[in-house]
Amino acid sequence: MSVRNYVQFEFPSKPENVSFSRSCVGAFATQLECTLDDIEEIKLVVSEAVSNSIIHGYENRPNEKIRIIVSVMDEGTLEIVVQDFGKGIPNLDQAMEPAFSSDPARMGMGFTFMKSFTDELDVVTAPGEGTCICLRRTFSRPDEDDFPEGG
Question: Which among 2, 77, 123, 136 is least surrounded, fewest beta carbons within 10 Å?
């Protein structure tokens, strides 16, 4: 897969940046042939990934860093990478189970939603180093005219 277009941005781990991140990714995804429902699903998975970073990765500490990289691939695939540098996930298999949460006040459906609305979900995590979530969803192939040569 080769990248047609991408955007990368970082922001502090503040709750108000969840809506910012989902809006940015949703706007970027519109260059693919997807429906409004598709965009809402993409925004939902971004909300879940960023919220997990804030709540679990950083334990609600507001001045940590979250990085997002969104790429449009030649094949019409949208790839979203959400990375934090927090505490990591001690037991990834357990965290991927529906309704599991390290915070009893939470529903524990974040990874379930992410899996439901994407074609691929990869998680790389290490205790004390953080978590990187890569989400991919394929739409139709973008028109060549949308990406002129050299631009």
Answer: 2
